[in-house]
Amino acid sequence: MTWPAPLTLTGSHSTLIPLSQDHHDDLVEATKDGELWKLWYTSVPTPEEMRAEIDRRLDLQNRNAMLPFAVIATASGKAVGMTTYMNIDSVHRRVEIGSTWYRKSVQRTALNTECKRLLLTHAFESLNCIAVEFRTHFFNQQSRRAIERLGAKLDGVLRNHQTAANGTLRDTCVYSIIASEWPVVRAHLCWLLDTD
């Protein structure tokens, strides 16, 4: 049995649906908004690499290593980014929410907060996870602030954790939310969405 199984998660601002090549054109358009692939400390596909990136994520899904979603904005009905459950550990009921990116025009909006609330709610309340992890590049200050805004706590920094596409060594900041923290984090996310 696949854990977690593909599903659709629906909110007011966004819907997370299983990723497919049907989302290719919207995602190409999305990545052009802000030329996201040019940020040296992230890993966002170029328009030309989008089809291969979708295939890569779907291959990882077939190996039960990732559950990828297309993020659909309610306002436009279009895919505006991607997110995943990854580093899936079914034995210890842990997942990482990662490999996430959004077109520039929807960054720092209620859409991202809602997507995280949908994913976290499913992880803690349906999958019975004991912890949900987030990882980001040490120099990705925007991502670090967004993760901290959710209520995740810094577990530590994995120094020289990976080699980036430009040849530099990546220090990875590892954050998590544990099951006992989820009720407070959920209340905080609901408050953020009510005030956004």
Q: What is the count of β-strands?
A: 8
Unreliable stretches (pLDDT < 50, length at least 5) are none
Shape: globular
Strand content: 25-35%
Rg value: 16 Å
> Separation of termini?
39 Å
Quaternary organization: single chain
Largest sheet: 8 strands, mixed
The pLDDT mean sits at: 94
SSE-based structural type:
alpha+beta
Task: State the helical fraction.
Answer: 25-40%
- Main β-sheet, spatial strand arrangement: 1-2-3-4-5-6-8-7
Total DSSP helices: 5
Q: Give, in order, the helices and strands.
A: EEHHEEEHEHEEH
Structure commentary:
The N and C termini lie far apart (39 Å). The model has no long low-confidence stretch (mean pLDDT 94). The longest helix has 17 residues, at 110-126. The protein is built from 5 helices and 8 strands, in the order ββααβββαβαββα. Strand 1 and strand 2 form a beta hairpin. Helices cover 32% and strands 32% of the residues. The protein is α+β, with helices and mostly antiparallel strands. Strands 1-2-3-4-5-6-8-7 form an 8-stranded mixed beta sheet, with helices on both faces. Helix 3 runs antiparallel to helix 5 (182-195).
Give a short overview.
With 196 residues, this protein is an alpha+beta fold.
Task: Record keyword descriptors for this entry.
196 residues; alpha+beta; 8 strands; 32% helix
